[in-house]
Amino acid sequence: MERIELKAKAREGTGKGASRQYRRQGLIPGVVYGAGTAPISLTIDSKEMGAAIKGATGENAIVTLSVEREDSVVTKVTMIQDIQIHPIRRDILHVDFHEIDLKNEVDVSVPVRLIGKAEGSKMGGIVQQIERELHIRCMPLQIPDRMEVDVTPLAIGESIHVRDLPVGEGVTILTPGEHTIVTVVSPVEEAAAEAPEGAGEEAVAAGEEEGSTE
């Protein structure tokens, strides 16, 4: 599990107007909140925040925030709850941090990565990934960067379900076991799935009409 350290400053101004002013100064407005504690509005240097996110190898990095206040510095262990991104410029507009306790389990989502080459694909089969992330529960320092699924043994018509995955110690998968993660289908099935609804019926009707003698 990757850990990131960031410095922040408590802020007084809130609202859209204040947020725009902070951004013009190269600062990103944000907030850190957690159970049993009052939320703290803060700002983070945009370059430092951008570098931290760019260098992160996983989506669930643990962020240690050192929040500077008027007369003290408060340190909080957090995870990023939400990041608002400008739709065009792709600038970070706002960041929400959620305070966590390293001694308590957390529920998070981790991406699924397929590895290997399916046997069925060598015979023309098409690999379809159904689940792209899994919901898990574990201690914060045990959060995996991703869940790797080896598709090598899959033949055409075979699938891997959530229940088939090996699970590391201390990790509980919350996604239902019957959910399909990946399957290998034949080209015919793939083509049928992509065909517009009713296309097959129209083809049959056209054939019957051409063969009619009336």
Q: Please, could you describe this protein's structure?
A:
This protein folds into 2 domains: 3-99, Ribosomal Protein L25, Chain P (Beta Barrel); 106-194, RNA Polymerase Alpha Subunit, Chain A, domain 2 (Beta Complex). The N and C termini lie far apart (74 Å). It has helices at 16-24, 46-55, 187-194, 199-210, and strands spanning 3-10, 27-34, 37-45, 62-68, 73-85, 92-99, 106-115, 126-129, 133-138, 147-150, 159-161, 172-173, 180-185. A 6-stranded mixed β-barrel has the order 1-3-2-6-5-4. It has a 4-stranded mixed beta sheet with strand order 10-7-9-12, with no helix packed on it. The chain is of the alpha+beta class. Residues 203-214 have low confidence and may be disordered. It contains 4 helices and 13 strands. The longest helix has 12 residues, at 199-210.
